[in-house]
Amino acid sequence: MTDLPKLSFQKLAEPKKGIAILLAGEGPLFGPIGQALDDASSGAISRAAKAAAFQGKAKSFLDILAPAGLDLDRILIAGVGDAGALKDLDWHLLGGAVAGKLANGGAAATVVLELADGGSPGADAAALFAAGAKLSSYRFDRYKKKKKEDDEQKKKPPQRIVIATEGHSAARKAYTALDAVTDGTLLARDLVNEPANVLGPDDFAKRAKALDKLGVEVKVLGEKEMQKLKMNALLAVGQGSERESRFVVMRWNGLGKSSKKDPVVFVGKGVVFDTGGISIKPAAGMEDMKGDMGGAACVTGLMHALAARKARVNAVGVIGLVENMPDGKAQRPGDIVTSMSGQTVEVINTDAEGRLVLADALTYVQQKFKPAFIVDLATLTGAIIVALGNEYAGMFSNDDTLASQLSAAGEATGEKVWRMPLAKEYDKLIDSRFADMKNVGGRWGGAITAAQFLQRYIEDVPWAHLDVAGTAMGSPQTDVNKSWASGFGVRLLDRLVADNYEG
Ligand code: BES
Ligand code: MN
Ligand code: ZN
Questions:
Q1: Are 181 and 294 in contact (CB under 8 A)?
Q2: What residues are in contact with ligand 1 under a 6 Å CB criterion?
Q3: How far is Cα 166 from Cα 3, in angstroms, rounded to an integer?
Q4: Mind listing the pLDDT tens digit for each residue in 319-366?
Q5: CB within 5 A of ion ligand 3: which residues?
Q6: What is the average per-residue pLDDT within 432-458?
Q7: What residues act catalytically?
Q8: What atom of ligand 1 comes closest to residue 271's alpha carbon?
Q9: What are residue 140's phi and psi, to 5 degrees?
Q10: Which of 67, 272, 452, 474 could form a disulfide linkage to 427, CB 3.0–4.6 angstroms apart?
């Protein structure tokens, strides 16, 4: 990971050194501290604002050299508009935007979280602001060996960002829990950004195994064990690869070992590289398929988050790790595999491999656990990108309560999901001439028929499938994400748990 700024909290007070960040509203620009700085510089700050026609509008910035009379180096003024209308998510995004403006920023910066009335936003907002600053500072530059000479790479946010805010102890406390979620998101980004030569199924499994340091129980199954369990659908996808498949089960027992409470269960697609197999993909853009384990990365990052913040929940995270390669041993179109559930699948297209991996993983979690719900995440279809672009993940669910909890968590965190339909008319499209089902459903509604395929493996349990092909990677750069891999889903699912399933 990159050098990330160290975030800390202190009481609301006038900054004396380095860069000062002030908030400005649309009424009077500043609160008492901003006003005092302006006075100490004989009104130079407000003159600069006037000259630049800066009016404190939301998302507007004014960046000035600190005027004479102040010991500061630089003053960055962030417009917040009508501060009372800002939601927690807005503070999160503002933290990211501010850190972005601080690139090239010297040693230390102090953010004065002061509104025009002299008060600060609440503790959660202040903590979210800080988390946004950390998330937006992430760069995956491990392989940029010449970075020191490269000017672009010198543009780094400051090493330290101090948040000066009213109620700083409460903000610090909220931040500690939140930082676990941030680190989970960054872990997911790292996994997705990492190239497939470095991160094969076993390498990924080892990174998941490292969560045992946080108290997560991690079990890694190899191919022999999977054969015993009859995970033939998952194994078929990996059989063309030189690298053995892995299956990882992560358990966080936040309610204690003796707790009998049904666990919440998360399942992730972990195709470390998807060539398409014998139904090989075109060359253009194939490099992006190193990110075809975005679902598994999210589940791993989420388990990190839950354990690191000691969430009061029993949670299970399961990931199927395979590489989809063309080879003399690879599966062929027309092959029929018997999945762990006993259902047979005619493999029409070896590039529709994710659903085969998930099929056995979904069967496994229902046989081994009694899930309170199952959420699976997968970079499953190009079709979901055609439907929703890169802004919303596709959500398919058999349960209205779970679906609305997910929608609400999406709106709260900015990791948004859009519900898509499931219906028997679509299900018919994957009936096969030779087996119980086929793994593709024809030209139209590809994200839906993929979800219908998964639903054939779901028994009587609340379930949601998130197709994150458009959001886990190559998604739009936001104020809190400047990376190709977004870490999508960690904040969303942490929030789902925190708001509905903890305690
Ligand atoms: N991993 C891909 C889906 C994907 C596409 C993820 C673009 C991220 C970006 C998946 O395994 C796949 O190849 N799906 C096929 C399914 C088709 C063969 C029915 C697709 O979407 O074209
Ligand atoms: Mn594929
Ligand atoms: Zn794939």
A1: no
A2: 274, 292, 349, 351-354, 379-383, 440, 446, 469
A3: 28
A4: 999 999 999 999 999 999 999 999 999 999 999 999 999 999 999 999
A5: 271, 274, 292, 354
A6: 98
A7: 281, 355
A8: 1
A9: -95, 90
A10: 452
